[in-house]
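Whiteboard transcription, Tuesday session. T.W. wrote the structure tokens on the left side:
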């Protein structure tokens, strides 16, 4: 391909939702047309403002406070610069750099060994992300905007010699699906290894006949019935849940579920199903539906 083709792609063809494409092309241009995967991943991270802001926050908390406490560094908040509290010769500097590199390598190898996963982990990972609708269970951001990690709810560091952790009163494998949840990289790093918060929805409103279906399958459902304001809150949460599922699946079944929740909310407001649809018809006759696809962009001058 010729330069004119690349120029056309860069100026006319390329469509961007993130900065990744031009960063990759630029790095390849700077490195005679080829780069290792790790090199390109590092280049992308340098342009990702959310990653940069996250690590700025990390920097100013744990490493800054620990290194300052031990007198290794100090920070000038007016100039926003870090300073090493040592006056070293060139040889001493190189020796200290080598020691730092050895510590980094030791930590990476130890972490890789600790994080070894069973061969079946790939399919489990897929199911965890699928069940989360491809979104972070904490902040809700989709995988298209921020990478999604698989988080161990009870951290791996808490596992016993048999690779098991205590969860909800029983011992489970640390890598079992029961102990995994989908979090974006930012929420996962903020949670850290000391936290065992479970962001999954463990309680949700179900249709009235679901407990009967569960019993017919020789299972014992644990059900708590809510009323009044608690039911209204549960219905509001259910509407959000069904909307998210429709956005993810685009299925007619999820639309029907949304309608059922709306009907129940209408009843909470004193309107029957017939009342609700009369209001729908009335408003449609007055203002129309949404079939023609008019997008209002403001008034002309």
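and on the right, the sequence the group agreed on:
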């Amino acid at each position: 391909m010729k330069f004119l083709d690349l120029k056309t792609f860069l100026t006319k063809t390329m469509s961007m939702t993130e900065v990744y494409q031009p960063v990759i092309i630029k790095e390849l241009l700077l490195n005679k047309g080829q780069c290792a995967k790790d090199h390109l991943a590092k280049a992308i991270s340098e342009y990702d403002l959310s990653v940069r802001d996250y690590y700025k926050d990390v920097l100013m908390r744990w490493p800054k406070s620990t290194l300052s406490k031990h007198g290794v560094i100090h920070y000038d908040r007016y100039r926003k610069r870090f300073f090493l509290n040592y006056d070293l010769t060139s040889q001493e500097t190189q020796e200290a750099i080598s020691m730092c590199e050895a510590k980094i390598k030791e930590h990476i190898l130890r972490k890789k060994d600790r994080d070894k996963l069973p061969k079946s982990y790939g399919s489990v990972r897929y199911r965890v992300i699928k069940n989360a609708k491809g979104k972070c269970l904490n902040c809700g951001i989709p995988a298209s905007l921020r990478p999604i990690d698989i988080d161990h709810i009870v951290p791996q560091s808490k596992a016993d010699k048999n690779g098991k952790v205590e969860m909800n009163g029983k011992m489970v494998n640390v890598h079992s699906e029961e102990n995994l949840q989908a979090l974006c990289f930012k929420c996962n790093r903020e949670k850290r290894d000391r936290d065992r918060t479970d962001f999954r929805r463990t309680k949700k409103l179900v249709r009235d006949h679901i407990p009967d279906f569960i019993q017919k399958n020789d299972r014992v459902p644990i059900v708590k019935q809510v009323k009044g304001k608690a039911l209204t809150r549960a219905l509001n949460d259910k509407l959000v849940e069904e909307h998210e599922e429709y956005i993810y699946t685009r299925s007619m079944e999820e639309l029907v579920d949304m309608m059922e929740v709306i009907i129940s909310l209408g009843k909470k407001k004193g309107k029957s199903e017939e009342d609700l649809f009369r209001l729908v018809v009335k408003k449609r006759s007055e203002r129309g539906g949404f079939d023609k696809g008019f997008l209002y962009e403001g008034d002309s001058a």
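Someone added at the bottom: The first helix runs from residue 3 to 13.
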